[in-house]
Amino acid sequence: MLEIKCPYCGSRSQNEFSYGGDSNIKRPELGKEVSDKDWDNFIYLRKNPRGKHSELWHHVAGCRQWFKVLRDTSTHEIFKTAKLTEEL
Amino acid sequence: MTQKYRLDKEGYINRKKSISFKFNGKKYFGYHGDTLASALLANGIHLVGRSFKYHRPRGFIGSKEDEPNAKVQLYNGAKTEPNAVATEVELVEGLVAKSQNCWPSVSFDFGAINNFLSKFFPAGFYYKTFMWPKSFWHKIYEPIIRKAAGLGVAPLKPDPDRYEHKFEHCDVLVVGSGPSGLGSALAAAKNGARVILAEDKSKFGGSLLTDQVTIGNKTGKEWADETVEQLKSMPNVVIKNRSQVFGYYDHNMMVMFERTKDHIESPNKYTPRQKLWYIRAKEVLVSTGSIERPLIFGNNDRPGILLASAAKEYIKKYGVLVGKKPVIFTNNDSAYDAAIEFKKNGINPLVVDIRKNSEGTAVKEAKDLGVNIKFSHAVANTKGYLRVSSATVGKLNNDKSGYENLENIPCDCICVSGNWTPTVHLASQSGNKLKFDEIISAFIPNQSHQNETTIGSANGSFTLKKSLEDGFNKGFEVSNKLTKKNIKSDPPTSNEKSYDNYEKFWCMPLPENKKYKRCVDFQNDVYVSDIELAIREGFRSIEHVKRYTTLGMATDQGKTSNLNGLQLVSNIENKIVPEVGHTTFRPPYTPVTIGTIVGREVGKHYRPTRKSPMHSWHEKNNAVFVDAGLWLRPRYYKQGNETLQQAAKREGANVRKNVGICDVTSLGKIDIKGPDSAEFLNRVYTNAWMKLPVGKARYGVMLREDGIVFDDGTTTRISENHFHMTTTTAQAVNVLAHLEYYLQVVWPELDVNVLSTTEQWAGAAVAGPKSRELLKKLFPETDVSNEGFPFMGFKEENLFGIPARVFRISFSGELAYEINVESNHGIFMWEKIMNLGKSMGIQPYGTEALSTLRIEMGHVAGSEIDGRTIPSDLSLEGMLSKKKDFVGKRSLNREAFLNPNREKIVGVIPVDKKTMIPEGSHLVKDKNAALPNPKLGHISASCWSVEYNNPFSLAILKEGKKRIGEKLYALSPLKNKSIEVEVVSSHYVDPKGERVRS
């Protein structure tokens, strides 16, 4: 079980959080024309890197804030966590 | 009462406290402080079980958690526990144990015929033999094999014991209380760290309990006792015995079980049997010690053949001799400690030593005591069926490929030692890549992957001096990283025997023309010949050899067998061990009872139960409840001998005819506030929200980004910047997370806050043609006319002094209202409605009637919003705004979603108008078509229509409405039903929706 440092609450066990995927995915702007390919990429295609991965986590059993985590996908080492407004 | 093999001195047992127990139906006696193993050995019993595959007689090999053979079934009935390790079971009055994997008895086991047929059962036998015919595997082969092989019997009744979970944090967790563990715990604690010291045995001290050493001016045992007392007196130390740290997980999450009950004679009713500790440790010091390795020789698995260290431990800890005519067989000095202990207790052992000579002090001491030693000799084979009776001993020739002369030496036990294997399980579990240490011929931890440091003999330091130094130094180092107090404690001086080199030789040759079985893995019945066969058949990776032969698998995780197996593979393949590598060490280090892992989350505590504020009223009024997620909702209110169907029909009909009341508290409720709230709703819902007037509700549909319908519900504008959203019961939690995601991650510029208010409001739906009349009674001051309070209207009201929110919304399709009050007034509201509705014939209705009403109206719910349907599949295309973008809109243009032949919602009635159509039935054109019968759709929900008094179902059907009027078949192979049905509109009742607006 990972220990994740919520930028608002401090270190808590993983079972207080839920995972939200790659934090670099940007939703296409509303009302803008999007090609089929770009839309497919947004909906379905995700990188699956071995190593550093910046991702979103949601402190569901805590402050209910979404935030960013830089984690190694093979060792689970967490290098940094940050608020959405901060740089990782 | 005689315990023939019990000494009258030695051991940490209480000879004044005799304890009786039963083994295989016979009564025996032991002493307080015994384990089941030591008590059996005191009675001269070695034969405890049969081997896994060949049913060979087996006895004890170890004295601790390394024991592969002595697995027993404890107690009977619900309390029974399979696969208990006899060396780890503390003796208590009335203990009942029996041997496993034997029939009719351990001394005469019918399955032993496998041993005589063993040349037909080599590694891979099952894979090769039971391939065909395929249909035989499931019904014939597998059950027979399962019965013949295997371990204990699982209990059939629920576990009567209680188990607890505990969460703990510390600076330094020390695993194991030998010299390095005690030293490091003391050094870390003195340096101000919060320390937990865990010892899996009942007594602290590890090797200090049995080794003849001095620390400072005390014996090892005295030093250990004093250190433990000192640690216990320190407020920053938690010290636990009977506590096994069995798993090393990510981010230094350590998991441990503590045995809290089984050793107590008359425990309290509420004493938990075991506690599971989740320990988040900033630093972990692994001082788990080492395990002696057996030697491999002909028939080395007979009862009476055990580790030399075990023989010594049985004498030193329990005052028990494992035999009176011992042969000690070794490739190193440590076995001489056992020889010395035998000799001191009046027994004459014979030492058979592979080496040419040894200069170690233990060897000298043994010689001085007059112990008979045969250097350059080895045990080639043994005899004795149920107990070893002799050893065939010979002089090894120069290249150790055979023997010069062989003689038969009578004995009643053989104590073997193949040197020591560090217990690296926890370090390996932490992600530490192990390295092979040539000096000790074993793997030791290398680069730490987490905050883990392995010390003492677990790290390959086999001397006391080094272990103490290691302990004190590392204890200081890791604690100082955290406390920075710089309080350093020096290791005490110590005195111990010196050890000479061991011989790197473990597997004895077979005498000429002999094919003795030489056992490598005792628990899984793997022999040298199996490993040779696996390599001959082309298995190269050690992981493959492991799986083909089962070497190192099962509950002991290869504690005694792994390295011998690796050595063998490396010898056969002419590789060095590090090239062969090692298999993965996996948690748990020792078996853990399922009850401990589950803890208190059993039965009704498995998950929390959510109850509405009106729950007690439902109970008093004969409600039969149903699980709806975590909620308990009334399914129906039973009257007399009614069945579910009859009750649902009565309750539903009363809604259509008079008025009913339904508890809708469990619906998700989300409070939405902020100047951008309308804009936000406009983005997450498919329909338009900007122009919704204050005091009006609107039905909304939410999609996922991939275009699939996510949830639906009504949202009401309470004031300009304040909305009240409702969700389905099932999706309430997910919808909130969904909204938070968009507000925080995607559109942080929107000034909106969302908050779950599900539990803050108690909700009652009042539905039926007489609901307006009832509403008038509830709110006499209010204009409840169709003009004054129109469909989808909302009013903040006063219910006899209680603030209430009243919505004119309907799920049943009747004229209906929903009333919300603060939860603590829920009962007041409910009783008020029931009282005032009495004259109108009001009746409560449960979820079954609620479903019936919505199904015949064609309203969709979870069974249609099933994660596969898009709005047009559910006839919701009218809900899609063309003027604005919204979450999921872009996906609806995808080719597959535009296909006009998609499966869409329709209604279905049986042609005979009598037979209920099972939910989940497949709709097909031809009921007799060849399988797989082409599926046109499926039945999503079924009810008995109260309006028409015949069955009606909703279905998701290919080409949907185009098929209205067609006759199809609904097939349910599960219920063995085939029903001819007619496709109709999904809006079976009041298709124009006139009633809700009346």
Describe the structure.
The complex is a heterodimer of chains A (88) and B (998). Chain A is mostly beta strands and 88 residues long. Chain A has a single domain (3-83), classed as Folate-binding fold. Helices cover 9% and strands 38% of the residues of chain A. Chain A has one helix at residues 36-43; strands at residues 3-6, 10-13, 18-22, 52-58, 66-72, 78-83. In chain A, β5 and β6 form a beta hairpin. The longest helix of chain A is centred in the middle third of the chain and has 8 residues, at 36-43. Chain A starts with a strand and ends in a 5-residue tail after the last strand. Chain B has 998 residues and is α+β, with helices and mostly antiparallel strands. In chain B, strands 8, 9, 12, 13, 14, 15 and 28 form a 7-stranded mixed sheet that branches. Chain B has a 6-stranded mixed sheet with strand order 41-42-43-40-34-44. Chain B folds into 7 domains: 14-120, Ubiquitin-like (UB roll) (Roll), CATH 3.10.20; 163-290 and 422-495, FAD/NAD(P)-binding domain; 294-418, FAD/NAD(P)-binding domain, CATH 3.50.50; 512-593, BFD-like [2Fe-2S]-binding domain (Arc Repressor Mutant, subunit A); 619-666 and 759-857, Probable tRNA modification gtpase trme, domain 1 (Gyrase A, domain 2, 2-Layer Sandwich); 668-757, Aminomethyltransferase beta-barrel domains (Alpha-Beta Plaits); 895-997, Beta Barrel (Elongation Factor Tu (Ef-tu), domain 3), CATH 2.40.30. Chain B is elongated, with a radius of gyration of 38 Å. The interface between A and B is medium-sized, with 27 and 25 residues.
